[in-house]
Design brief:
Elements (H helix, E strand, L loop, with lengths): L4 E7 L3 H12 L4 E4 L11 E4 L2 E4 L12 H8 L4 E2 L16 H21 L18 H12 L8 H6 L8 E2 L3 H8 L5 E2 L4 E5 L5 E5 L2 E10 L3 H5 L4 E3 L3 H8 L3 E2 L1 E8 L9 E4 L9 E4 L6 E7 H10 L2 H15 L7 E6 L12 E2 L8 H6 L6 E3 L12 H18 L3
Parallel strand pairs: 1-2, 1-10, 2-7, 8-11, 10-19
Antiparallel strand pairs: 3-4, 5-6, 8-9, 9-10, 12-18, 13-16, 13-17, 14-15, 15-16
Helix pairs in contact: 1-12, 9-10
The structure holds flavin-adenine dinucleotide.
């Protein structure tokens, strides 16, 4: 770091931090983006495999018709794929005949209607709204682990109801992670620079990092709530209300495993399979995404946690066991692992996306509230309605930057 004095320091270079830094830099505010990893993007992370951009973190531009990343990606010259998402179309019939799919869709809609009705009353766990004995409870549980990363027992009905989505789901062909990283091009930046403590007791804030101490008038903290809850950044004076709010919004777990696939022409591009329809511990399989000879395996909740505990090879064994159960034992020879990332074990994420524990939906506003108009908080967990997403993260980062710009009177 050439200098240690800034007007604003942004801690964490994921979607929220990059968006905040871009906004401040473009407005001419002297600022520095400080990121613990050796790369930008955080939970937005695209890797290359055989000319294919694979998103190990966020992949879908949810609420795409109002998602600011769409215009940003287009300005960057990236291609937007508007093919309807696999979950908006029937799955393949293997192990799940179309008639059963219709029954499941009905049961899932009824579950979400009960959530909406219950949200008008006192908060409680979403699991209480499963219909006892319903044949589809296992699959409803599984799909909710993909949506929230958590089990229904740990999900607040109020929080689930607060999430808004327009049902438009698109993708960036070159990768969502690529888009987030490219958005940070040219902003003053320190990589491999973990922040250890923030002292906000004096007239200027002191930010202790692995590369020295910085001074700033204002700081935007965008690290995942799990890390705040674990006290990995020491605040002076302490901020017990922030730690408590972060503890109410744990990051659930969702992990992806990419497999290469021999003879992909057997499958319709972008089609989908569920491993099982009778239990929550099952993966969903996106076949030939973008027409590529690949399978994207998605695992969530307790199932992902158990597999992470067993080690990364267990994801492959689990996926192969489910796929051969559906497609025959010879199918095992047609898939080869290409890439995966265990987000729960990632020291700078410790999970995939946030959901509020029952009774804790108010934690999002408490986490987002600035302290003394000098210490700002942003990141997906701070978003009132777009939490758990990369566009929600962007919106909170831009809002924090706007609040700072307004306060300094530009
Ligand atoms: C498998 C998976 C699939 C997903 N799918 C989707 C999807 O399809 N669509 C969607 O919209 N969202 C999806 N998400 C969620 C989305 O990726 C996140 O909500 C979003 O990227 C979070 O951005 P953020 O800036 O809030 O946090 P992060 O991206 O976590 O950024 C925080 C940054 O802080 C850094 N950091 C941590 N500690 C320190 C420290 N002490 N000092 C400095 N820096 C630090 C981290 O390294 C990180 O770069 C998915 C996530 C995962 C894991």
């Amino acid at each position: 770091m050439a200098t240690s004095e800034y007007e604003v320091v942004i801690v964490g270079g994921g979607a929220a931090g990059v968006a905040a830094a871009r906004h401040l830099h473009d407005a001419g505010v002297p600022s520095l983006l400080v990121e613990a990893r050796g790369r930008l993007g955080g939970r937005a992370w695209t890797i290359q495999h055989n000319d294919h951009a694979l998103d190990l973190g966020c992949g879908w531009l949810h609420s795409a018709d109002r998602n600011p990343w769409v215009a940003i990606a287009e300005r960057q010259g990236h291609a937007i794929d508007r093919t309807p998402a696999p979950w908006s179309r029937p799955s393949l019939p293997n192990g799940f005949p179309l008639g059963e799919q219709n029954e499941f869709r009905g049961a899932m809609s009824a579950f979400f209607e009960r959530v909406s009705t219950a949200a008008a009353g006192p908060d409680r766990a979403a699991a209480e709204l499963l219909e006892p004995g319903c044949r589809w409870n296992g699959l409803i549980r599984a799909v909710n682990t993909y949506i929230s990363g958590a089990e229904l027992e740990d999900i607040s009905v109020h929080d689930l109801e607060n999430y808004t989505d327009t049902d438009a789901n698109w993708r960036v062909v070159e990768g969502y992670g690529t888009t987030v990283v490219t958005h940070g091009a040219g902003v003053p930046l320190a990589l491999d620079c973990p922040v250890n403590s923030i002292d906000h007791s004096g007239t200027r804030l002191k930010i202790k990092t692995g590369q020295g101490t910085l001074a700033a008038d204002r700081v935007i903290v965008t690290v995942p709530g799990t890390l705040l809850a674990e006290d990995t950044i020491a605040f002076t004076p302490a901020l017990p209300e922030k730690i408590e709010a972060a503890r109410g919004l744990p990051l659930g777990l969702a992990d992806k495993l990419f497999l290469s696939l021999d003879r992909p022409e057997e499958f319709e591009p972008g089609s989908r399979l569920f491993g099982r329809t009778d239990r929550g511990a099952t993966a969903t399989y996106h076949l030939c995404p973008f027409g590529r000879p690949m399978i994207e395996v998605y695992v969530g909740g307790d199932n992902a946690r158990a597999l992470e505990a067993e080690g990364e090879t267990s994801f492959l064994a689990f996926a192969v066991a489910e796929l051969t159960g559906l497609l025959g034992s010879s199918f095992a020879k047609r898939v080869t692992p290409v890439a995966m990332h265990a987000w729960g074990a990632d020291p700078f994420a410790r999970g995939s996306y946030s959901s509020a524990l029952p009774g804790q939906a108010g934690c999002r506003a408490r986490l987002a509230a600035p302290v003394d108009d000098r210490l700002f908080f942003a990141g997906e967990a701070c978003s009132p309605h777009d939490f758990s997403t990369a566009h929600g993260a962007l919106l909170t980062g831009v809002a924090a930057a706007d609040a700072i710009i307004a306060a300094r009177g530009i």
